[in-house]
Amino acid sequence: MAKFLNTRKAVSEIEDLIKNADARLILISPYLKISKSFQELLGYRNGKDKVTTIIFGKQELNPEEIKFLQGLKFVSLKYNQNLHAKCYVNDNAMIITSLNLYEFSMTTNKEMGVFIDRNDANDIQLFNDAYKEVEYINDTSERFDLNIDSRDSNNGKSAKITTNIHDTGYCIRTGVPITFDIEKPLSYEAYKKWNDYANPDYPEKFCHYSGEPSNGETSFSQPVLKKNWKKAKERFNL
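Above: the chain's sequence. Below: its structure in token form.
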């Protein structure tokens, strides 16, 4: 059943949650400022070509941190200006906590949280109810791209951050960010593999519009999940 976490246990459990995540990893935290230890974990996951979605409401990144995130091919950033929740979820576990993913919160603040185990019969309903809210936050958040203003990156000041959400899509096989194109929903490398058989109805893993797991409900011929089709049509004038 769900268990209580203090600061130390919350940090440890979040580390394990990231490390053990398979197809799904969503990190929801108001502040986009990631500690060194979590940068290491994200880099480890990225090296395994596994997609991580980070949803945030404010950013306090320095140029070095921006450069790190820009180098993570399989990290998808999303912005929600009203975000105040802190929730970290993978395929089998969820942590709802007061803990943010930056150093001060982990080493100085007194935090609390709750660990929910999807594989525990006592936690299944709680996990599913909470995950519906995670999906809602994910669906109502805007995709976010990082761009460094060269004038700032050369003088040591905090880099300028801008958004460029209107042309971003996701590869339906790997989930990596690519240009949104309903006729080209695969990255170049994924397309080369797909083209071996060129089956337009072969079930794929991600939604071209949102980047969320599609559980086989998307394909080359239908790259956008049905629930996202209306939003995709409006945003991209389809």
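Helices lie at 7-19, 36-46, 63-70, 103-107, 124-139, 150-153, 188-194, 229-236.
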